Amino acid sequence: KQLGRSRTETYSTNMDFGMNDRLTISNKLRRAVESMDSFSLHYQPQVDLNAGMLVGMEALLRWDNPTTGGITPDVFIPLAETIGLIVPIGYWVLREACSQLKAWEDKVGDGLVMSVNLSAKQLQQPDFVEMVGQIIEESGVDPTHLCFEITETTALGDMGHVLSILNQLLNRGIHIALDDFGTGYSSLSVLNQLPLRTIKIDRSFIRDMHAGSDHIAIVTAIVAMAKSLKLHVIAEGVETEEQKQILKDMNCDAYQGFLLSRPIPAEQFEDKFLSH
Ligand code: C2E
Ligand code: CA
Ligand code: CA
Ligand code: CA
């Protein structure tokens, strides 16, 4: 009964699929993963608030399927996780992001960090660290130019195991960022248990941050706490100049958001941010 109930809930939140129900989409996803042709990565810039310089980019997966129309990652990623496809998809994402980073470094030199999102299911693969090592080697990128974004939910799965994997990745030089910070229920205890380099303040806090809003106090506290833990802080979802200015005044390190750019294809990213 429990299962039936959660299924119904999942379905009802995805009602706007129209003719495409979960089963149909799952089948399309299975077929799409065979060639990966209909997938691509978009990149969203991250800029240092103080220096105003580009410091890196986040790779975000897109699925372009003519028969399903645009299905957003918020919908197909959880589905891919459920039906076990996130593992092959995740390796493809990492390969693609690494080879893109290599191409950009060859063009503009290093100094950029490529961020890639990870799902819990990926970390659970027994050969995950080995596969990551292989992909890094094949692409020729410096692992210290890579950042894996995980969420609290990922971290909380099997803490002991997750910790061991994260430490192995860290030993190879890869940075770890805690994504969507502030949305979980045990954020604070996770902070000093995980080998984190960065936290990303969830966009729900940034969205409601304007003159006179309580969110300013919350974000100020998060930034101050992160600083005292020697963590790098990135604000997500910055959409207005006002939000950017408030974050700068707080000494937040970097920001990401539509104000700067939406996630865009590689060629566009290159034209806009890497060619001068
Ligand atoms: P996320 O990791 O929190 O990524 C940030 C999301 O916020 C992206 O949505 C991005 O387009 C959106 N965003 C960025 N700036 C703004 C802004 O200023 N305003 C608003 N309203 N939104 C903004 P997107 O690309 O649809 O991705 C949604 C989620 O799907 C991601 O959330 C991430 O959890 C997941 N995802 C995307 N690509 C991958 C992937 O390659 N692997 C895994 N495991 N998950 C992925
Ligand atoms: Ca992310
Ligand atoms: Ca996020
Ligand atoms: Ca998210």
TrEMBL record:
Residue ranges annotated for the EAL domain, each copy included: 22-276
Superkingdom assignment: Bacteria
Protein name, UniProt field: EAL domain-containing protein
Part of the intact protein present: 602 to 877 of 877
